[in-house]
Amino acid sequence: MKAITPVSRFLLGFFSCAVLVACWQQAQQPVQAQSASTANAGPLVALPDFSALVERTTPAVVSIEASSERGSASGQQSVTPGSEDEQMQEFFRRFFGQPMPGQPGPQGPRGGRSFGSGFIISSDGFVLTNHHVIEGMDKLVVHLADRRQLPAKLVGSDPSTDVAVLKIDAKDLSTLAIGDSDAVKPGQWVVAIGSPFGFDYSVTAGIVSALGRPSVDGSQRYVPFIQTDVAINRGNSGGPLLNTRGQVVGINSQIFSNSGGYMGVSFAIPIRTAMNAVEQIKATGSVRRGQLGVQVRDLQPEELTDLGLKAAEGAFVASVQNGSAAAKAGIQPGDVITGFNGSAIVKSSDLPPMVGALQPGVKSKVSILRNGRTLDIPVVLSVLDESAGNPRNPGTPNQAPANPSKLGFSVEEVSSATRSRLGLASGGVQIARISQPMLGQLGIARGDVVLEVGRTPVASVAAFEKAVAALKSGDRVRLLIRNADSTAIHILGVP
Predict the structure, then answer these.
(1) Could you tell me if 448 and 483 are in contact, meaning their C-beta atoms sit under 8 angstroms apart?
(2) Average pLDDT of 367-381?
(3) 456 or 40, which is more confident?
(4) Looking at domain 409-493, which CATH architecture does it have?
(5) Which position among 96, 112, 220, 424 has the lowest Cβ density within 10 Å, counted as fewest Cβ atoms?
């Protein structure tokens, strides 16, 4: 056998390593090819892609330009669109419910221009937007996705739901499908399309944060708002809130903000609430809704024991309007409404939207808790008077009585004229003079009749003075007071 020299041994090792490297490289090529193929197949993490939804729905979204020339004629100040002044006016109006100091209010013509969004709900040209977009304006122009600009006529609007219906002269228009806002759940993805700050067809997305929220400024008490974290700004008002199927589930309407801009909390009108108003507007030009005739508030923890409740659930009846549907049905101040037509009332803001969704004359069932007993009371809804419910003007405080009570007022026997005016057959004492001006701010005035102190009926001045004498400094006392408008519960502190 021939011996292997060191040189041969080196050459043999070198060629062996080369072969091994070549084999390794060849083995890696399929893996690398596979990795490249996997990378081209798509993202490793699945995120929502709304591009197809946006492409399909955008043709039915519009921007709205509303203007008025009446402002200058009435001496009102007009503003430049997009200016800081206009932004501040909108901020004060929408989030404080009042105009910026020195500027026209929401009920009168504002002059200048208003810009918002909207969407087409029928191929023959009906357009849905917010009432506050067109409020006080007399010239309306709808900007379509195909760049057409068409004049619009106001069919009607409803300030209580912040809904307005416009009509443009066009045919075969793209429309948005109406979804089911009752099926919306917190955590679901939603998309908004609108024209914030004039940037047409801007798309933002987020999730539903909560349901059944009350109005930011208290103006739309019949709307159980959908809260989202979708970025909404000035100009988005009236635009659609879409589910992942491209169906409208809400109308973007309000934001909560300390600055006037988006801060992560936005509110949309449920489309079911809006369409209820739309159908009436298209039929009659206005909206009629039922009224129960009560003022309600949330329960306080300290009231639970007195009312025999374990949880602060329900709507506490603070007052009942005289002659209202509730008064005729026997609902009383101090009752706790726990249900309406079979639906549970958890908080006081649950009740107005349920009642407002029904027509006057509709027979309903109100479930209440009274003195530890649950009662189902039939009631026929009356016609809502939008002007009702405003605080009465109590006038100026009277001259202080010679012997004022601990509660800041003196009483006298109820006169026959007062009994006739208030419809009282018996009981109660009449407020003669007021020594505490704060009572006027609470709506308590001379001529009102005190029916109960605590839960004790008072049918004479002597009975009233005895009940008040038992009160101690620091006590909080419940008064049942009747005036020309309502019978209400007031809670006063004893100094």
Answers:
(1) yes
(2) 91
(3) 456
(4) Roll (2.30)
(5) 96
Whether residue 42 is predicted with pLDDT greater than 90 in this model: the reply is no
Least confident of 47-51, 201-205, 432-436: 432-436
Quote the mean pLDDT of the chain. Answer: 80
- Spot the catalytic one: 162, 350, 448, 485: 162
Integer Cα distance of 379 and 355 in angstroms: 11
- CB environment 362-399: b (16+ within 10 A), e (fewer): eebebbbbbeeeeeebebebbebeeeeeeeeebeebbe
- Give, in words, the CATH class of 57-284: mainly beta
Is the pLDDT reported for residue 43 higher than 90? no
pLDDT at 208: 95
The dihedrals phi and psi of 410, each to the nearest 5 degrees, come to -110, 160
Distance CA 392, CA 386 (A): 15
Q: Is 132 a catalytic residue?
A: yes
| Contact between residue 410 and residue 433 where contact means Cβ atoms under 8 Å apart | yes
Tell me what percent of the residues of the chain surpass a pLDDT of 70: 77
DSSP assigned state of 413: P
Q: Do domains 290-383 and 409-493 have the same CATH topology?
A: yes
pLDDT in tens, 217-244: 667 788 999 999 999 988 899 999 999 9
The whole-angstrom separation of Cα 395 and Cα 445 is 8
> How much helix, strand and coil, in percent to the nearest 5, is found in the chain?
25, 30, 45
Question: Is 162 in the active site?
Answer: yes
Q: What is the DSSP letter of 177?
A: P
Domain ranges in the chain are 57-284, 290-383, 409-493
Q: Which of 117, 157, 237, 266 is catalytic?
A: 237
Please state, in angstroms and rounded to a whole number, the distance separating the CA atoms of residues 458 and 466. Answer: 9
Catalytic residue among 131, 132, 143, 490: 132
Phi first, then psi, for residue 166 (nearest 5°) are -110, 160
Provide the terminal-to-terminal Cα distance of the chain, rounded to the nearest Å.
Answer: 123
| H helix count then E strand count, the chain | 12, 26
Angstrom distance (rounded) from CA 271 to CA 19? 72
- 143 catalytic, yes or no? no
Minimal CA–CA distance to 275: which of 181, 149, 155? 181
Candidates 176, 164, 181; CA nearest to 249 is 181
Q: What's the CA gap between 327 and 329, in Å, rounded?
A: 5
Rounded Cα distance, 409 and 464, in Å: 12
Cross-strand partners of 61:
119
Report which DSSP code applies to 9: H
pLDDT for 101: 36
